[in-house]
Amino acid sequence: MRTFLSLENKHQEPLPPDLQGDDVRYAPALVRHFLQEYTRPGERVIDPFAGLGTTLVVAEGMGRLPYGIEIDERKAAYCRSRLAHPENLVHGDARRLLSYDLPICDFSMTSPPFSTLEEASDPLSDYRVDGRGYKAYLRELRQIYAQLAQRMRPAGTVVIEAANLKQHGRLTTLAWDIAGEVGQVLHFDGEVVIGWDHYGYGYQHSYCLVFSVI
Description:
Blueprint: E1 4-7, H1 28-38, E2 44-47, H2 54-61, E3 65-70, H3 73-81, E4 89-91, E5 105-110, H4 134-149, E6 152-162, E7 165-167, E8 170-172, H5 174-182, E9 187-200, E10 203-212
Parallel strand pairs: 1-9, 2-3, 2-5, 3-4, 5-6
Antiparallel strand pairs: 6-10, 7-8, 9-10
């Protein structure tokens, strides 16, 4: 596994006008790299925070079978419009992952909604309701991945793209905290540093945290 990648953070497909203000997609090239590294055609790929569908669309284009969950109805509708099998995307809440009829998958890749230490709303509700704090957010992420582990084949690979966040003079070690929290329910195999031509959050890089199902 290469531990450093240098990529352009760009997308070929523009978003519809009503979604352009919420463009936090990662680059398709990132997904392609990890699918080539860890999967084969015909295998199942799941994204528990499907967002605008980058993971699912790239996976389908590479001959993998994509599945996902997305809590925002507009994003879910847009994502479904891009898939040959839109029924594989659930409009729902990843915190209820085991309540959905999802198959056993071989690989998972996503970037979860980010939270700073001061975040007042709940990222896992798409920032729609008041949150219960940063520690509660991390605990819920761990619980989501404990559920996901039950929908993954033994020794399957899970990748989480995240960054540490510098905002308003304060640092949130989000990527490192996710590694520690999710590492309680999955085996943490290590990180790949992604150097971007542009990124945000006070950095020009992010991390792909790589786990395996215990």
